[in-house]
Amino acid sequence: MRTATILFIGSVLVLGLNGCTQLDQIMRGKTAASQPVNPEGERTEVNYIIGPGDHLEVFVWGNPDLSSTVPVRPDGRITTPLVEDVQASGKSPSELARTMEKRLARYVKHPVVTVTVSQVVGRATEQIRVVGQAVEPRMIPYSEDLTVLDVLIAVGGLTEFAAGNRASIVRKVGKTDKQQFNVRLADLVKDGDISANVEMRPGDILIIPESFF
């Protein structure tokens, strides 16, 4: 009897701890359902890649005259004080900052550069394409932690003719392969089912078909 009582108390304590942990995760917004994931269920890290049309803040510490806000030209390059025609497109902000430091080292002793993307457009291959029964089908810039709900908000939601639960995402895998998987947009938007909110990846195509009447 004593052994059974101890086991029972132990089980209650474990359940209580698990419950507290889950409550803490919910309060912090870190539950599995609220985390955007890829179709394989694994969260992946993505570095933003600069593209033509982006606006960059190039800050050179201790040298305000060399700091500037510049657009990325259609050829993918930028020009800043003392440094001309630097390739920016295709690099992350940190990679560009290191390149700028090397170029500025000809004129400044131990330059320290920070690059921030102040206005995002992104490379065409990185943008999210929304086609079909969205209120405003279009391309939108990719940003870190972007989810399908964010995309729906950006395009104005679903039309009244949309078959939301038959929507799908076409995703590039590797250099040449693609995969297509279903997303339940109607459950997400109309029923508030947050488990249907999935993470978007650069270059994804969201296809929203029309309902059959």
Task: Note down, in words, how this protein is organized.
With 213 residues, the chain is of the alpha+beta class. Strand 3 and strand 4 form a beta hairpin. Among the domains are: 55-119, wza like domain (wza like fold, 2-Layer Sandwich), CATH 3.30.1950; 127-208, Outer membrane lipoprotein wza fold like. The chain is 24% helix and 24% strand.
Briefly summarize what is shown.
The protein has 213 residues and is of the alpha+beta class. It has four helices and ten strands; from the N terminus they run H-E-E-E-E-H-E-E-E-H-E-E-H-E. Among the domains are: 55-119, wza like fold (2-Layer Sandwich), CATH 3.30.1950.10; 127-208, Outer membrane lipoprotein wza fold like (Roll).
| CATH homologous superfamily identity of the domain at 127-208 | Outer membrane lipoprotein wza domain like
**Strand composition percent:** 15-25%
- Give the termini separation: 65 Å
Helix content: 10-25%
The whole-number mean of residue pLDDT values reads: 80
Q: What is the chain-wise order of helices and strands?
A: HEEEEHEEEHEEHE
CATH class of the domain at 127-208: Alpha Beta
Shape, principal axes of CA atoms:
elongated
Please list the strands of the largest sheet in the order they lie side by side.
7-6-10-8-9
Number of strands: 10
Given the helix and strand composition, which structural class is it? alpha+beta
Number of helices: 4
Stretches where pLDDT is under 50 for at least 5 consecutive residues are 1-44
Major sheet details:
5 strands, mixed
Instruction: Identify the CATH architecture of the domain at 127-208.
Output: Roll
Q: Radius of gyration, rounded?
A: 24 Å
CATH topology description of the domain at 127-208 = Outer membrane lipoprotein wza fold like
